[in-house]
Design a protein that fits this description.
alpha/beta; four-stranded parallel β-sheet
Length: 401
């Protein structure tokens, strides 16, 4: 039954997770090899990290939000020793949120082999603390936040994949849950459509500002979100792609606009604005991609992310399970080992939109209860951090410290 409660993990800030993970986070690319070696072979350990050597408040806020995510119970921060981002500061924030945490510099530990050994020993201690400190509690839909991203789109994405996710969002919100969608750069041409979905005039102004910034950004970088793969898949214009991308938001009122790493304030439907602020030109353009967008959604506290792909994808994500949805039945059959849900049954006439949306609700419930997604089973944990500037929330708000 889709509305049956399941067991989750209670965090000190009151949020509930569907996984109980330890995150190893590195603070510069020079520490990535050691960090991944520490996590190798550890099923409950996920490794993420920021490659940059120079300071970036946006990346720091995102790291803080991720190590204090509802699915994360403990963390180990690993640095080389000469970068700007300090692992001790991350550890302090995690411990302030009530999570067990440790940190070290590889230079101080004695290098690669000594650093890996030190990290493995730290994981054993963190795991013991986590086993005794984590309470199991009942969860229901009103405890769940689900994000949605689309990529590798084709003609079926706007006809089936995204509409089915949108109907699932309606079902989730009606049950008291929270839904977050992003990719406003893929909604160019929909200014009035967006604003018409605003819950109130203040939200309409937020949507207007977010849309205007996205449009200006696309003009500045001379790039709109249409790729050769989209064209090969049957999409012809940005407006056509925009309408399909917007379909994943469903039909409920938009409660407001979030920035990356900002937690959902209350249940309902939210738009995530991940576009850099207009004055940001540091280190050239940002490099948006599907993995970056998924990490942005996870940073809002989404315990699960849905990824709609008409042409197919082989990515996964750390921290929050990724459920891959396609509206193309041929893609689903061809890539069955990588895809989780076939929304093409609606185009085939085997299910109505409501039936497909309810089937997706059932699948999300199973994953929330502990069932592995295809990316989880295959070990896919792709992640991507970038330099960016946004007027994001305070560090305390971003990490619930």
């Amino acid at each position: 039954m889709p509305d049956q409660p399941w067991q989750g993990y209670l965090r000190p800030d009151g949020r509930k997770g569907i996984r109980n993970l330890i995150v190893v986070i590195y603070t510069v690319e020079c520490a990535s090899f050691v960090a991944h070696a520490i996590g190798q072979g550890e099923e409950d350990v996920h490794v993420i990290g920021f490659p940059g050597c120079y300071d970036n408040a946006y990346a720091v806020r995102q790291m803080l939000a991720l190590i204090t995510h509802p699915n994360v119970g403990a963390c180990l921060a690993v640095g080389l020793g000469c970068e700007y981002t300090q692992p001790a500061k991350l550890a302090d924030a995690a411990m302030a949120s009530g999570r067990p945490c440790d940190w070290f510099y590889i230079q101080d530990a004695g290098g690669t082999e000594a650093g890996i050994a030190k990290g493995k020993a730290a994981l054993r201690c963190l795991r013991e603390k986590l086993a005794t400190a984590t309470a199991r509690v009942s969860m229901s839909w009103n405890d769940l936040t689900v994000g949605a991203e689309c990529g590798g789109s084709d003609g079926t994405s706007g006809l089936a994949g995204n509409p089915v996710v949108g109907r699932f969002f309606d079902f989730l919100i009606d049950r008291g849950g929270s839904a977050v969608f992003e990719e406003i750069v893929e909604m160019i041409g929909l200014r009035n459509v967006l604003k018409a979905r605003a819950a109130n005039p203040q939200v309409a102004r937020q949507l207007e500002a977010a849309y205007t910034k996205a449009e200006e950004y696309c003009r500045a970088v001379r790039q709109y979100s249409v790729s050769p793969g989209n064209v090969a898949g049957g999409l012809t214009t940005i407006e056509e792609k925009s309408m399909g991308a917007f379909a994943k938001s469903g039909s409920r009122p938009i409660q407001g606009v979030l920035r990356v790493s900002e937690p959902v304030p209350h249940p309902g439907l939210w738009l995530l604005d991940s576009v850099p602020d207009s004055h940001f030109m540091q280190f050239g353009y940002t490099n948006p991609n599907d993995t970056e967008g998924i990490m942005d959604l996870i940073s809002t506290g989404a315990q699960i992310v849905l990824f709609v792909t008409g042409r197919g994808s082989v990515i996964g994500s750390p921290i929050a399970p990724l459920i891959k949805v396609t509206g193309n039945s041929r893609t689903f059959e061809r890539m069955r080992g990588d895809m989780d849900f076939n929304a093409g049954t609606m185009l085939d006439g085997r299910q109505t939109l409501d039936e497909a949306g309810m089937s997706l609700l059932n699948l999300v419930g199973e994953v929330a209860s502990g069932a592995l997604t295809r990316p989880e089973a295959l070990g896919h944990r792709e992640y991507f951090f970038m330099y960016k500037h946004q007027d994001t929330p305070s560090l305390a708000a971003g990490c619930h410290a």
